[in-house]
Structure formats: structure tokens, C-alpha cells
Amino acid sequence: MDFDPSWLLISLPVAFVLGWLASRFDIRQLKLENRQAPKAYFRGLNFLLNEQQDQAIDAFIEAVQNDPDTQELHFALGNLFRRRGEYQRAVRVHEHLLGRGDLSRSDRERAQHALAQDFLRAGLLDRAEAALQKLEGTRYENEARLSLLAIYERSREWAQAAAVAQKLDESDQASYSTRRAHHLCEQASEQVAAGDLAAAGRLLSEAVALAPQAPRPAIDSATLQLRNGDGAKAFGTLVALSDTAPLALPLYAAALQQAAVAAHREGEALTLLQRHYAESPSIDVLEALIALGGSPTNAIPAANGQPLAPRDGYIAHLAQQPSLVAASRWLAGERFEHEQFHPQVQRALDQATRPLMRYRCAACGFEAHQHFWHCPGCQAWDSYPPRRVEEL
């Protein structure tokens, strides 16, 4: 049978038309699907900008259902859940992402970091720790280490905190020497509580070498030396500290006075305390002077030309700055005409001055009767000034 070329002329246009119709159908279907997904996405974005988070979540869920392979929509949805406090739903979204086999390495690291943030915000510190440890060696490494450091410090796991701080120090992002010294001091305190004074001494020596400019390692070392009966060594430690950290003297003035008495070097201590008091008057330095039998200056003449008694140093303090604490301390040793009412008046004064003797965190305002190196409120280090609330 002979081939008829006319069939070729007919079939080619027909095939072309059918192909064109099929391609148009696919393009229209693709445009329709793409139009639906972005429409839901942009609607969610609009709700988000208007702070309508409930509607934004509904729109993003719709967008994810239309295009379940879109990672960015999953990340946006997970972040929205976390911001709303719906941590379980955020965890499910990010765990779903991590369970996908087609996820790129960059997106997998991002999802792991987001999952760690979910656990942190939910207060699930154990699970957060495990999730953060998986970020070692990723682009989120330093951020994960900072979060781990905060976890260990909050839970008072000082050895782990010290190890993480050392890694951060070695990364050259910032200096963590003072913070590492705090960790060593905390470990030393635990050793003192356990009765191992030798181990505590080694940790404090390491802390002093690590941060020689920081006051805490020297103060804790002097306290331990006093406990071991070595007053002369404790006095030398604190005298050296008065040169490197003079502003912190109110924190260790009492320890300096005790060390001076133990080492029989009261005269040197009086001279040092008077010099620093003249530069920066403080109730703690004043009381150390009074305990040594001295006064803010070498001699404060009274009205009759005789020097005042040591406790009258409170009067000299009041001449420089108004202080309800100093006034109360001076009145406590005075005798008055109506002496029978003195105890009641003194109790009222003591009650009024108690809040003034607190320390206040400069970061969060948390007040405490003792000085903290690590704020119990905001977890900040070295945020407590060495002066009382009345002196701020």
C-alpha cells in the first residue's frame, strides 16, 4: 500500500493543536495552584503585620496544606506558634521538618535551632540542652553555646558552665575570663561546703590567675585564708586588691579589718581605710574603721578640743552626706532623757534602715540584703554595685 503524503499534512497540524491545548491546560492548572498558595501566604502575612496572629496562623496552615513541601511556610508557622506560647505545636512543626529526608543541610540546622528555641521557651531545659548540643559544628554553634551556658548557670552546674565558657573564650568572639573565674569561685564554694579546703584553694588560685583584675577571686581567697588561720596572707591579698579594685573596698572592708587584727597590722589597715574613705565615703568602710578603733580621719576634734570616740565617726559621716543608717547607728549607743522609750525608737529606726542596707541589681532592680555576684533575678553577672541602696 502506497503512503499518502496528504495524511502527514493533516496529522501534523492536529498533533500541534493537541500539544498546544495540553500545554495550555497544564500552565493554567499550575498558575491556579500557585495563585492559591501565595494568596493564602500573603493573606497570612497581612494578618501578621496587623498583629492578628490567630488569623495569620489559619492562613499559613491553609498555605502549608496547599503546598506541604514549602519549608519557609513551616518555619513561619512554627515561629508563630512559639510567639503565641503554643510550644507543643511549634515542636511538632519543627520535628516534622527534621523528619523530612529531602531537607537541605542548611534548613536542617535551622530547624534544629528552632526546635531548641521551642524547648527553651517552654522551660524544658533537659530537652533544650540535648537539642542545643546537636548544633555543635554548625553556623548556630556560638548561639547554642551561649544558651547552654545560661542553662548550666541557672541550674548551677558550674563544671559544665566552665567548659562551655572556655569554648566561647577560645572562639575569640569575646572575653569570658572573668565569667570563668566566677565559675571557679562557685566550684570553690561547693568544695568549702564539702570540707575540702585544699581543693577550694586550688580552684581559687586558678581563678585569680585567670582574672587578676576581678575582685571576687581575691576576696574569696582572703576569706579562705582567714578560715585557715593565715591572717597575714589574707591581709596581703586584700591590700593588693585595694590597688587593683579600690571601688570594691566596701565589699571586703570587714574582711580587711579581721585580717588586720589577726596579723596585728591594725595601723596599716587604718591608714588604708582612711585614705579610701576620704576618696569615696561608705558606711561599710566607716564601720571597719570603727571596729579598728579609728575614725574617718586621724583626729576629729569635739567641741571641747578632745578627739571623738571611734563610734562618733558616724557624726563625721553625717557631716559629709545625710545617712539614716549612720544616724541610727550613732543613736543606738546614746543615752537620752527618756531612756525608757529608747528601745522602741531604736526598733523603729532599725526597721526603717533595713531596706537602705540592701544591695540592688543595676540590671533588673532585684534587691537583697547580701551582695550577689550572680543576680538571682535576671542571672546577670557583676550587676550589683558594691554600695548599699542608701549610697546609690
From TrEMBL:
Residues 359-383 form the LapB rubredoxin metal binding domain. It is a single-pass membrane protein. One of its GO terms (biological process) is lipopolysaccharide metabolic process. Fe cation binds at C361, C364, C375, C378. SUPFAM superfamilies: TPR-like. The keyword Cell inner membrane applies. Residues 24-392 are cytoplasmic. Keywords: Cell inner membrane, Cell membrane, Iron, Membrane, Metal-binding, Repeat, TPR repeat, Transmembrane, Transmembrane helix. It is found in: Cell inner membrane. It comes from the Bacteria. GO terms for molecular function: iron ion binding. Modulates cellular lipopolysaccharide (LPS) levels by regulating LpxC, which is involved in lipid A biosynthesis. May act by modulating the proteolytic activity of FtsH towards LpxC. May also coordinate assembly of proteins involved in LPS synthesis at the plasma membrane. Belongs to the LapB family. This is Lipopolysaccharide assembly protein B. The lineage of its organism: Bacteria, Pseudomonadati, Pseudomonadota, Betaproteobacteria, Burkholderiales. The gene is yciM.
